[in-house]
């Protein structure tokens, strides 16, 4: 993707900002792969492993073109009513060398946020998005104490200790207000936090995760407010370019198994239908010890598909994940088939359940699945 195409993408982001509550047609939606491929002139690139510093790295990295703070979770009431949620903040740099302006409203950054609720028992899915310039009155990110916000959607940390995190978002009659905490260490994905997405230098991100965060709080749907508990997953990435022109997108799994282990794996898909050899992931044991997974370690097989009435896109929503060296043979099934984020950036992201075996013994779990770059 050339620079002009990147500018067009940002222009589209600006245009759709006034339509943030309206589902977008496939013609007006951006493909995630298009947004993350190509070169952005002047921005730094993820070229080599670096030393991560916390809490500083929880904040924005404006020398890079894009980054996100990504929260997903499965929660339920004491009576067993189940919900999934996503709350994600994206930062997009417009200019690597912005000209200083006197206006307090000028900005070289745009923030976009996605908020979605999956009401499993109600069999409904509710996605929303917002956009704003990075000015204190509208949107931004800071590290100490951690705070990322877009209007009244926000994640806030507890003073300089960062944890616990407080997530809040409300749109129309839907809302989340939950607190997240974790006893497991931060996981640096890829090579000490450098996640290489294609063979070209710089087509990579800096990437870390909090893979199991105890969650409690409330979810509101319509005139009902539900007290909920469960588990969440927090992903952080920043980069300037990630995908190659030959790559179409990815299938990303974040799974929390009942034996207190977690599995993350993303399968990078090439446009010719093959799986990229740089597909990667991690397996985290109950004590927080991390094992890296390469493409050769994981066999993914789609088992079932769902076709969107909105976009006509056919998504593989049920999968078999086979990790022979770890004794894992898992089936990942969506809690609802229709969890398509039919927004300005179109992709499928939703809550899933996990069943299968580990070393021959039954095992279950929950998690999230993201399917990006399907047309």
Highlighted features:
mainly beta, AttH-like fold, 11-stranded mixed beta sheet, 2 helices, disordered N terminus
Molecular structure report:
By secondary structure, the protein is mainly beta. The chain has a single domain (3-38, 66-372), classed as Beta Barrel (AttH-like fold). It is built from two helices and 24 strands. The chain has helices at 3-16, 32-35; strands at 30-31, 66-76, 82-93, 109-119, 124-133, 139-142, 147-150, 153-157, 165-171, 174-181, 187-188, 194-196, 204-221, 224-239, 247-257, 262-270, 280-284, 290-294, 299-307, 314-323, 328-334, 340-342, 345-358, 361-372. The strands form two sheets. Strands 2, 3, 4, 5, 6, 7, 8, 9, 10, 11, 12, 13 and 14 form a 13-stranded antiparallel sheet that branches. Strands 1, 15, 16, 17, 18, 19, 20, 21, 22, 23 and 24 form an eleven-stranded mixed sheet that branches. Strand 9 (165-171) and strand 10 form a beta hairpin. The radius of gyration is 19 Å and the shape is globular.
Give a short synopsis of this structure:
The protein has about 375 residues and is mainly β. It is built from two helices and 24 strands. The chain has a single domain, classed as Beta Barrel (AttH-like fold).
């Amino acid at each position: 993707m050339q620079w002009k195409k990147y500018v067009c993408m940002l222009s589209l982001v600006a245009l759709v900002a006034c339509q943030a509550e309206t589902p977008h047609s496939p013609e007006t939606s951006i493909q995630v792969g298009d947004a993350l491929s190509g070169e952005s002139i002047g921005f730094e690139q993820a070229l080599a492993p670096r030393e991560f510093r916390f809490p500083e790295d929880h904040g924005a990295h404006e020398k890079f073109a894009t980054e996100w703070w990504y929260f997903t979770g499965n929660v339920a009431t004491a009576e067993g009513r189940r919900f999934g949620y996503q709350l994600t903040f994206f930062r997009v740099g417009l200019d690597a060398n912005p000209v200083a302006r006197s206006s307090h409203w000028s900005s070289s950054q745009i923030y976009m946020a996605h908020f979605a609720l999956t009401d499993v028992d109600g069999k409904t899915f509710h996605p929303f998005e917002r956009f704003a310039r990075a000015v204190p009155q509208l949107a931004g990110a800071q590290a100490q104490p951690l705070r990322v916000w877009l209007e009244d959607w926000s994640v806030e940390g507890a003073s300089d200790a960062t944890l616990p995190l407080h997530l809040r978002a409300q749109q129309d009659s839907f809302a989340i207000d939950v607190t997240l905490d974790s006893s497991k260490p931060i996981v640096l994905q890829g090579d000490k936090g450098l996640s290489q997405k294609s063979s070209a230098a710089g087509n990579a991100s800096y990437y870390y995760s909090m893979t199991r965060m105890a969650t409690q709080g409330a979810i509101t749907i319509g005139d009902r407010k539900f007290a909920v508990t469960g588990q969440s997953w927090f992903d952080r990435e920043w980069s300037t370019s990630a995908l190659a022109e030959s790559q179409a997108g990815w299938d990303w799994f974040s799974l929390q198994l009942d034996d207190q282990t977690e599995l993350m794996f993303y399968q990078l898909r090439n446009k010719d239908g093959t799986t990229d050899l740089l597909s990667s992931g991690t397996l985290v044991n109950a004590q927080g010890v991390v094992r890296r997974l390469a493409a050769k370690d994981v066999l993914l097989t789609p088992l079932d598909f769902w076709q969107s009435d909105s976009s006509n896109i056919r998504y593989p929503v049920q999968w078999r994940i086979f990790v022979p060296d770890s004794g894992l043979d898992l089936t990942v099934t969506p809690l609802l088939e229709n969890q398509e984020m039919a927004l300005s950036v179109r992709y499928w992201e939703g809550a899933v359940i996990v069943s299968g075996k580990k070393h021959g013994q039954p095992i279950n779990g929950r998690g999230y699945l993201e399917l990006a770059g399907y047309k």
